[in-house]
Amino acid sequence: MINRSNAAKDQSNIYSKQIAKPKAQSLTANQKMVYETLLNLGRTAGAYELLDLLKKKGVNAAATVYRALNELRGKGLVQRIVSTRTFIAHAYPKTEKDESVLLICKHCGEVSSIKDNQIVEVFDKNIKHSGYRVSSYHLELIVSCDSCTDKGM
To answer: pTM here?
Structure first.
């Protein structure tokens, strides 16, 4: 299954429905502002971009944004994309058991995810034979999306 980041924009009202979930019910005002801003963007964004967008709402320090993002990550509402140093909001809370492979377009930055249990099984099998145990997965693939490929990028 592939989930595109733009789908988050279509589900911007999901937040109010998700607030009843145990992990999401205790958002502070800052966490709520950061989450809603990132979710409504419908794409990845860095902390400083979020800070610029939130300044008109009274958020003036990067530390405030980073604290909120860290807490949102813990609640499964935001995921950090290591390779681009950005974050993406999830319309629904994710758990550590929700492994996925992120596909990141090297041209436009669009992020999609693939959830495929066969991928996880292959990793588990090979890692088990190496003498290690996986505590969590974080796999990012840098790709070219169809739109950028069609444009000749």
So the answer is: 0.73
